[in-house]
């Protein structure tokens, strides 16, 4: 029971959004089969906050929207912004580009349709394109199982400098017109 503070610290750290005092109490009571009060939790959180107020730490405990969260201290925000900008500018993989092209030309399209065209699983590419907000979920198909339909986003339009999907080059414009297998060059 000496390490309750570490349990609370772990709960705050593991929570993707602010964790409320009630949630902390619930987790601790379920783990230790002992009652905790709001005052108990407030005292532990105060101790954790004091610990992270030390200049040796780049993070701090912040109360936001009635919950607690670890956030980076303000003095490090500029460096973190640069990292986020740098990461967001990373190029798309060949697989993601192929998946994006299929979605752009065939939208609205299901994951199964994309996978039939590419011949491989597209879960990762679709997830990355959703994270980069280049594609969006446009609804559900009427097919069996009601699969999700994907389409391009407004950010896609901005990124490629087009106003309408009809402005994409026609597939015949994209091909190089080179010799195909079986054709003889003159």
Automatic annotation (TrEMBL):
Signal peptide: none
Keyword list, A-Z: Cell cycle, Cell division, Chromosome partition, Cytoplasm
Keyword rRNA processing (UniProt): no
Coiled coil start-end: none
The keyword Cytoplasm belongs to this UniProt entry's keyword annotation: yes
Xref: Pfam families: SMC_ScpB
PANTHER family membership: SEGREGATION AND CONDENSATION PROTEIN B (PTHR34298)
Protein name per Swiss-Prot or TrEMBL: SMC-Scp complex subunit ScpB
Gene of this entry: scpB
């Amino acid at each position: 029971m000496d390490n309750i503070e570490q349990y609370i610290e772990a709960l705050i750290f593991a929570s993707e959004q602010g964790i409320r005092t009630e949630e902390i109490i619930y987790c601790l009571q379920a783990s230790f089969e002992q009652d905790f009060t709001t005052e108990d939790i407030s005292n532990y959180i105060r101790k954790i906050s004091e610990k992270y107020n030390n200049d040796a730490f780049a993070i701090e405990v912040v109360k936001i929207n009635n919950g607690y969260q670890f956030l980076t201290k303000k003095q490090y925000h500029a460096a973190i912004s640069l990292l986020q900008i740098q990461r967001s500018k990373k190029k798309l993989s060949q697989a993601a580009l192929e998946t994006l092209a299929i979605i752009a030309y065939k939208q609205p399209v299901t994951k199964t349709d994309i996978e039939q065209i590419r011949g491989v699983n597209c879960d990762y590419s679709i997830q990355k394109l959703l994270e980069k907000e280049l594609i969006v979920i446009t609804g559900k198909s009427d097919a069996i199982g009601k699969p999700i339909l994907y389409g391009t986003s407004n950010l896609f339009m901005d990124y490629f400098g087009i106003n309408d999907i009809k402005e994409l080059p026609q597939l015949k414009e994209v091909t190089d017109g080179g010799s195909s297998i079986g054709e003889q060059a003159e």
